[in-house]
Design goal:
By secondary structure, the chain is an alpha+beta fold. Helices cover 47% and strands 16% of the residues. The protein has 2 domains: 171 residues; 113 residues, 3-layer Sandwich (Rieske Iron-sulfur Protein), CATH 2.102.10.10. The strands form 3 sheets. It has a 4-stranded antiparallel sheet with strand order 2-3-4-11, with no helix packed on it. It has a 4-stranded antiparallel sheet with strand order 5-6-7-8. Strands 1-10-9 form a 3-stranded antiparallel sheet, with no helix packed on it.
Length: 305
């Protein structure tokens, strides 16, 4: 309960809410045109099939933890070479922090609500920790200031861990960076189930249907019917309210584009593909089941099961 009070308090900070939107817009504006979109996709991690940001966060966290251990051993009278190791670890962590920050703000710019507000504080704490470690790094080079530099790095470690605590909540509490369609296979229709009469589908007009417990978006296009999970994997946006962009459907919330044919990612910010379904038409009814292998012609008699 106390944790939720902390997060609610952060989410209700008006200064964070006021700053979040203009900052995120400014970040999105840094990626104009197709080239910018390609860079942004790479920073999100669409090529990795997993968000890139959490991969890079391990670099500063690990390096700065090692630096703290070396500092402690040095203070206990261990070999003086550990001082050089601690300084190197801090410098290496600073390099990792740059990559972590760039990918982190890119992901953060495509969030909303509580996640955006809490994420902004998470980022500000990371900036503070990086500033403390940067100052510590240069103070360590001066013999008379080394002790103060070590003290600053200890403070930076505490700030970085507070930020990491918020980062964990963003993933596990706010569900940022997870696949919002990652439901158990048992919840998906294993056998063909009727979804809608074929004549109720309009060409190039996404239509949401419910099949068992699954929300599906159906798109009739070029004489074929495509079926995808109606929920965008990125942050759960309604794909049925999106628009068609070429051979993909674009989420109305953050612009992720997912291929109609097989759900692969055409453009981020999503790093997870869409779940697709196998389609057939029987007696004028569109039927679907899980694990769609290919789309079928909308009105073809005896469409493959």
């Amino acid at each position: 309960m106390s944790n939720e009070i902390i997060f609610d308090t952060i989410a209700k900070q008006e200064w964070l809410e006021a700053a979040a939107d203009p900052i995120s817009k400014a970040i999105r504006d840094l990626f104009p045109g197709d080239a910018g979109r390609a860079i942004k996709n790479a920073l999100h991690g669409t090529w990795l099939g997993h968000p890139l940001h959490p991969v890079l966060t391990d670099i500063p966290v690990g390096a700065w933890t090692l630096a703290m251990i070396f500092d402690a051993l040095d203070g206990l009278g261990a070999r003086k070479e550990l001082r050089a190791g601690a300084d190197f670890a801090i410098g290496f962590g600073l390099l990792g922090a740059v990559g972590s920050a760039v990918t982190g703000v890119t992901d953060w710019s495509e969030t909303d609500g509580r996640g955006k507000t809490i994420g902004l504080l998470h980022g500000l704490l990371n900036v503070a920790a990086t500033a403390l470690y940067t100052t510590s790094y240069f103070m360590r080079k001066q013999k008379k200031q080394r002790s103060a530099g070590i003290a600053l790095s200890m403070l930076g470690f505490a700030v970085a861990n507070a930020s990491a605590y918020l980062g964990g909540h963003l993933v596990f509490g706010e569900q940022i960076g997870v696949d919002h369609t990652a439901t158990p296979d048992a919840d998906q229709p294993e056998d063909f189930h009727p979804a809608i009469a074929e004549d109720k589908l309009t060409e190039n007009s996404p239509r949401r249907v419910q099949v068992q417990e699954t929300a599906v978006v159906l798109i009739k296009r070029g004489g074929r019917i495509f079926a995808l999970n109606a929920t965008c994997p990125h942050l759960g946006g309604p794909l049925d309210e999106g628009k068609l962009v070429g051979d993909a459907i674009q989420c109305p919330w953050h612009g992720s584009e997912l291929a109609l044919e097989d759900g692969h990612i055409v453009n981020g910010p999503t790093v997870y593909p869409a779940r697709c379904y196998e389609v057939r038409v029987r007696n004028g009814m569109v039927e679907i089941r899980a694990a769609r292998k290919q789309a079928v012609t909308a009105s073809s008699p005896g469409a493959a099961a």
